[in-house]
Amino acid sequence: MRAKIVKTAIVGGGIMGITLAYYLARAGVAVEVFEASAALGGLAGPLTLPDGVEVDRFYHAILPSDAHLNALCAELGIADQLRFKETRTGFYYNRAIYSMNNIVEFLKFPPLGWIDRLRLGITVLAAQRVRDWQELEGVSVEEWLIRLGGKNTYQNIWRPMLAAKFDGDFRNVPATWIWSRLVRVKSTRQGASQREGAGHIIGGYITLIKAMAQQIEAAGGRIHLATPVQEVCIEGNRATGVRLADGVHTFDAVAVTSQVPIFKRLIPGAAPEYHEFLGKTDYLGIVCPLLVLERPLTGYWTLNITDERIPFTGVIETTAYIDPLLVGGHSLVYLPKYTAPGSTLSDQSDAEIRSMWMENLHAMFPAFDEATVRYFLVHRERYVEPLHGLNSAHLIPAVETPVRSLFLVTTAQIYPALTNGESVSRHGHEAAEAIQRALAMPVAVAA
Fold this sequence. Notes:
Radius of gyration: 22 Å
Largest sheet: 8 strands, mixed
Number of domains: 3
Oligomer: single chain
């Protein structure tokens, strides 16, 4: 039995790539990570504000129920950097904000009558009782929500939220999408009080990524920043290395952790049939301004928007659970807009986005004072959340590709779970074990 792969290239230094490299290095694999940008992290990476304070570029939250992520932090010796806090969720409906954090507030929610509230509760309970998610894969999210919650709840709550999330078109979205979200939202509420809680790692996910990177290098692995991979070299249907700006570097195995369309561009030597298969995977994009304020905006962790006149998907105030003193005394508010393939919103200038967003912030919050805005920073990404259609699980690409010694480890394989730090770190661990098995390496069995 082969005890060690001499050289394994990992393409991508985001949280997925570093997690994969960490687990492979821990198993005795000699890994080299190639990251195109000058810093690790990818979508989970940091942003340095104009005043030098480092914050998450996009919003993230850790839940007390995120067992794998919490265990990983403990293993790396950074569990003391985890912080959790009771949080609140609200809804913006008909130009007013309604808190939705206990049964009394739920029963007073204006758009829903008594029967609607009962059926909404039944919807949440039904999601918790689903044991085989595959039974939902052929049912549209619209059909499932109307069947359980009724048309009034669907029209007033679910439909505008779905339209915002999917940029207007969610006809092909399976019920697994809302099921996975209802299960995770329920997991934010712990104990007899069922109070909602969320948390973070001090310094952001980059604290976790740097801790894993340190262990990778301690095990003999190497991490190359500002080193984009131009091509995965394939000879005789076998991955033989990667092409960099300075030439070809040979490896025994290559694992790519990018989004599927990027992976597809990196493997021109793969079979046309595999390229055609990969072309069936697409993603939502995002335009996500970060509003940095001198004081809190709402006090809610998440403000769900059920008004289709508002261009952004929600108001995410991460300093509802992050102590502002840990982020330079700022209040951090993320205002994401998910974009469908072909959307022109990402082509608009920062100034145009700011003008549109500010106009709507004034409409939502009449007392909002632009003088409290310290920074307004716009970030865009084309490939953020994989799109999975009805009955499409068979289209998800496997970790082990048709090309020998070539592996794909990507968020598109995380289904039906949500894409977050918990699911990504878990998938990186499971993919590392799958790669070890494919390369005939021993895999440790958990006690």
